[in-house]
Amino acid sequence: EKTATANPRTRTAATPTARVSSSGPEARTGGRRDQLLALVVDQPGITLAQAAKQFGLKDASGLYAVARRLQDDGLVRKSGAELHPAA
C-alpha cells in the first residue's frame, strides 16, 4: 500500500507562486526605459553597448527590448547601431 508523502518541490494551490515586489521585471523595465531615453537625449548617437557599459551591465542584451519599445513609441530612432532622439 502506498502512502502519500508531500514533495517539498511540488507547488500546490496553497503554495504562493506570485510575489509582490517593487523590484520585479515591470519596475525595472520602466526605470531602465526612462534611463535609456534620458541617456539617448543627453548623448545622441550612443550605442546600446556604450549604454550598457554606463549602466554597469555585462552586455547590452537586456537593453534590446527597451530600445525597441522606445522606437515603437516614436521616442528614439536608430541609425545603424546608434540611437538618436526622435524629436
Explain what this protein looks like in three dimensions.
With about 90 residues, the protein is α+β, with helices and mostly antiparallel strands. It has helices at about 25-40, 50-55, 65-70, and strands spanning about 45, 75-80, 80-85. Strand 2 (about 75-80) and strand 3 form a beta hairpin. Helix 1 crosses helix 3. The N and C termini lie far apart (about 75 Å).
Characteristic key phrases:
87 residues; alpha+beta; three-stranded antiparallel beta sheet; 3 strands; elongated
Would you list the SSEs in sequence order as H and E? HEHHEE
Strand count? 3
Low-confidence region ranges: 18-24
Mean pLDDT: 81
What would the principal axes of the Cα set say about the shape? elongated
Radius of gyration, CA atoms, in whole angstroms: 20 Å
Helix count, DSSP H or I runs of 4 or more residues: 3
Separation, N- and C-terminal Cα atoms: 73 Å
The assigned structural class equals alpha+beta
DSSP strand (E) fraction?
5-15%
| Main β-sheet description | 3 strands, antiparallel
Strand order of the largest sheet: 1-3-2
Bin the helical content.
Answer: 40-55%
